[in-house]
Amino acid sequence: MTATINGKAQAIHLGERLIDLINRCGVELPQVCYHPQLGPIQSCDTCMVEVDGKLLRACGAMAADGMTVVTSSPHADAARREAFDRILGNHMLYCTVCDNNNGNCTVHNTTRLLDVEHQQIPYRPKPYEVDMSNPFYRYDPDQCILCGRCVQACQTLEVNETLSINWEDSHPRVLWDGGALIGESSCVSCGHCVTVCPCNALMEKHMLGEAGYFTSLSKAALNGMIDIVKEIEPEIGYGSILKLSEMESTMRDSRIKRTKTVCTYCGVGCSFDVWTKDRQILKVEPEHGPARPPHQAAHPRRRQLPRGLVG
Q1: pLDDT band for position 267 (50/70/90)?
Q2: Is the pTM higher than 0.85?
Q3: For the chain, which domains are there?
Q4: Strand, coil or helix: what is 177?
Q5: Percent of the chain surpassing pLDDT 70
Q6: Cα distances (Å, whole numbers) of residue 189 to 239, 263, 266, 292, 299
Q7: Confidence check: pLDDT of 299 > 50
Q8: Is the pLDDT of residue 40 over 70?
Q9: What integer pLDDT is reported at residue 256 of this predicted model?
Q10: What is d(CA 85, CA 223) in angstroms, rounded to the nearest whole number?
Q11: I need a surface site. Which of 45, 195, 229, 243 has the fewest CB within 10 A?
């Protein structure tokens, strides 16, 4: 079976999703809410493509013999840009002073991929406080893009069924047990929600103020820097601003060490990257590999690491 992707015939694997085929072929396509472990959530619309002349979400379609797919058509490109602009309405871009500016932020990378210079839909803050009640991670509703990845991981993979989103709310946000503080909910701190979050809405508390060169500054100083960036963005665009944040991200490689290790809790052999600064553990990140099934992406012991010395 074959499909035509941007004019080239590509072999289809049995039961392969269209988005996985496109990724396997090396075609760059935005996909903010899609994660291979989670399957199609279909909440962001940033993976829109033309299939036989019709716009479809690549994550929600199965690759089929004889289909003709165009990822770069004007209609598909316009649809993706409009969808991502809606996402930026829920997320303030302040990458240079963000602890998650480590090269793996999906929102940052999609802004770069789409070459976004200005957003049409202005950012709208949500009327909620940052939830710091869990000892291992925090949730910032103002940065949450409502992609649903964390909910899918909690509901479908971990089957803890703690997280949800009330879409009928005038200001939707991720909820723990329908609205409880994280620290008072049924959350077991497995960390899977943090692992799949595509931005800085969910972050390890040990990373806060430690990862970046500017992130340890006072809140007043950080807000002042963010205000300056917002003042100059209409004139210079996001492209130049992102170049600065990417320079700062590269500089972090000299202060943050990532060490591969294997969890010894059981015999499965799950592999992880341990992020350290000096002798302090900042983060433990699961590695993709055949030894670890999706539901073991975040064992309860993975996040519950002490803030202290290594070795």
Answers
A1: confident
A2: yes
A3: 2-87 (3.10.20.740), 91-252 (3.30.70.20), 257-303 (2.20.25.90)
A4: coil
A5: 92
A6: 37, 17, 18, 19, 9
A7: no
A8: yes
A9: 93
A10: 23
A11: 243
pLDDT of amino acid 114? 96
Instruction: Provide the pLDDT for residue 307.
Output: 35
Phi first, then psi: what are they for 295, rounded to 5°?
A: -75, -5
Residue 33 has pLDDT above 70, yes or no: yes
Collapsing DSSP states into helix, strand and coil, what is residue 301? helix
Among 175, 167, 153, residue whose Cα is nearest residue 298 = 153
pLDDT tens profile 125-139: 999 999 999 999 999
Residues 192/295, Cβ–Cβ less than 8 Å:
no
User: What's the pLDDT band for 288 if we cut at 50, 70, 90?
Assistant: low
Question: Which DSSP string corresponds to 49-102?
Answer: EEETTEEEEGGGSB--TT-EEESS-HHHHHHHHHHHHHHHTT----GGG-TT-S
Q: Which residues pair with 128 in a beta bridge?
A: none
Q: Per DSSP, what are the bridge partners of residue 38?
A: none
Token digits of residue 197 = 């979050």
Pairing of strands 8-11, 2-5: antiparallel
93 token code pair? 């871009």
User: If we measure between CA atoms, which residue out of 290, 280, 239 comes closest to residue 257?
Assistant: 280
Asked if 198 contacts 149 with a C-beta cutoff of 8 angstroms, the reply is yes
Could you give the residue ranges of the DSSP H alpha helices within the chain?
Answer: 18-24, 74-88, 106-113, 149-152, 192-196, 219-251, 300-303
Of 80, 77, 75, 70, nearest to 5 by C-alpha is: 70
Contact between residue 63 and residue 22 where contact means Cβ atoms under 8 Å apart = no
CB neighbour list of residue 39: distance below 8 Å, 6 or more residues apart:
152, 156
Q: Are strands 68-70 and 2-5 parallel, antiparallel or unpaired?
A: parallel
Sorted by sequence, the CB contacts under 8 Å of residue 84 that are 6+ apart come out as 30, 32, 44, 46, 110, 111, 114, 116
